[in-house]
Automatic annotation (TrEMBL):
InterPro entries: MGD_biosynthesis_adapter, MobB_dom, P-loop_NTPase
UniProt source species: Uliginosibacterium silvisoli
Protein name: Molybdopterin-guanine dinucleotide biosynthesis protein B
All residue ranges annotated as the Molybdopterin-guanine dinucleotide biosynthesis protein B (MobB) domain in the record: 5-137
Pfam family, one: MobB
Length: 168
C-alpha cells in the first residue's frame, strides 16, 4: 500500500482525538482523501446487545458486515487470534491519500507527540524514536531535531503533516 501514513501519539487526555478531529476537515478541504485508524487498549464494541448483528456474532460468525445507504461496517471477531498489527489493518482500508493513526505509539511510522504538561505524564519521544514533532499547549523544551508546534494552531499542524508527507 502506497498510502501515506502519519500517526499521533501521547497519553490519554492530551488531546489527540480533538486534534485529529480538527485536522481531518482541513486536509479534506485541500482535496485529500483522509482515513483513520484508532487503536484502543480497552475492549470495545460497536454493536448493541440483542441486535441482529450482535446475535450473529454471538452465534459464532467470524465476520459480520452491516450495510446501508449511508455506510457499511465490517466487524471481525479475533477470538483467540493475536491483535492485528497496523500493517494488516491498513491492508483492509480503501484507497486514500493519507491515513491518520491515533495510538500505535510503538509502531514504526512517523508520528507527532501530542503533549500537555498538565496531564502529569512524561513525554514519549525519548522512548519512541519515530516521533518527528511535538504539539503542545505549553512552551516546553524538546530536542533541537524535533519541531515544537502549538497544539492550538491546527492549520500549522496540518501544514507540517502535509509537508512531512510531501502531499502539500
Amino acid at each position: 500500500m502506497h498510502t501515506k501514513v502519519f500517526g499521533f501519539a501521547g497519553y490519554s487526555g492530551a488531546g489527540k482525538t480533538t486534534l485529529i478531529e480538527q485536522l481531518i476537515p482541513l486536509l479534506a478541504a485541500d482535496g485529500l482523501r483522509v482515513s483513520l485508524v484508532k487503536h484502543t487498549h480497552h475492549g470495545f464494541d460497536i454493536d448493541k446487545p440483542g441486535k441482529d448483528s450482535w446475535r450473529f456474532r454471538k452465534a459464532g460468525a467470524q465476520e459480520v458486515m452491516l450495510a446501508g445507504a449511508q455506510r457499511w461496517a465490517l466487524m471481525h471477531e479475533l477470538s483467540n487470534q493475536a491483535e492485528p498489527v497496523l500493517a494488516d489493518l491498513l491492508g483492509h482500508m480503501s484507497a486514500c491519500d493519507v491515513v491518520l493513526v491515533e495510538g500505535f505509539r510503538s509502531v514504526e511510522i512517523p508520528k507527532m507527540e501530542v503533549y500537555r504538561p498538565s496531564t502529569g505524564h512524561a513525554m514519549i519521544h525519548p522512548v519512541f524514536p519515530n516521533v518527528v514533532a511535538v504539539a503542545s499547549d505549553a512552551a516546553i523544551d524538546v530536542p533541537a531535531h524535533l519541531p515544537l508546534l502549538d497544539l492550538n494552531d491546527v492549520p500549522a499542524i496540518a501544514g507540517f503533516v502535509k509537508r512531512f508527507l510531501d502531499i502539500a
